Task: structure prediction
Amino acid sequence: MTARTTAAPSVSNPIRAFRRAPASRKRRVAGLLLVALLTLAISACASSSAPASSQSTPVAGNRLKVVATTTIVGDVVRNIGGDAIDLTVMLPAGADPHGFEPAPTDIASVNRANAVFINGLQLESFLTAMVENAGGDAKIVAVSDGITPIEGTEEHADEANHDEQEAHGSSDPHTWTDPNNVIVWVDNIERTLSELDPADAGTFAANAAAYKAELQALDKWIREEVATIPEANRKLVTDHAVFGYFANRYGFQQTGAVIPGYSTLSEPSAQEIAGLEDTLRSLAVNAIFVGNTVNNALSQRVADDTGVRIVPVYTGSLSEADGPAATYLDYMRYNVNAFVSALAN
Ligand SMILES: [Zn+2]
Result:
């Protein structure tokens, strides 16, 4: 179905209605006429631009409408979909995905979408209510589907945080901190886009192959970089438990987190803060890595108490477009460089 075929009948009806209508109705009908004419104009533009488009998208208005929740999911989707999709990224740069509350415009874009890509593993805690409200018939796809999640807390709980983390009993949603998991994302995204738009499947496959090669190169680069950090120093203390997949892949320990657990939404008790401070002192950890999506007052307090320094990293969001972590690949390079500078000596 194209815009052109739907526009034609809706133009003729308002014109006839306008001519016959009493004066009191003419203003409202004129509004309808304007909408119809705009629709006609837009479809005319789309038709005239068709020869310039690729063969697989003969009418620009036919591009898949795709929504991605976080900036990180959005960047990966953009790398696979390219110009063949019309992409809306829901969260602005710097927004905390754990605490994000969608606006009516977000619900409207989900309602119009053919596909909505979410991180999954309950990163987007707002999502269930939003999807229920949005209606529409978008295919909802969790890009993390197929990744074996880190469950519970045993991987990285210190004594003080153990009970609290166990109480949450959730899966770690931050799958993207290992680029090998993002290769799974790419497969999920490519499969979904190709099912919805088979005509562009060749483009999606080529884009996916090129991007996977970049992810493999990133993985190799990370292994080389972390090799410069003495094994005893490979300890990550963060604002919340965000780097579990990275730690498992590259031989780090998540030694502790200011907010114990996988979400930024819980609050640590005074006892938990004291326990973390003891850990920092006893293990001679020299840095707390604090993300761009949290208020860092609590981390600053722990840093002040222990003499450990705060090192800024990117966690739940990319940077603004003109910042140092505007793509997922740059986000990973930025964070690894921060780990190496803080821990290599
Ligand atoms: Zn998080």
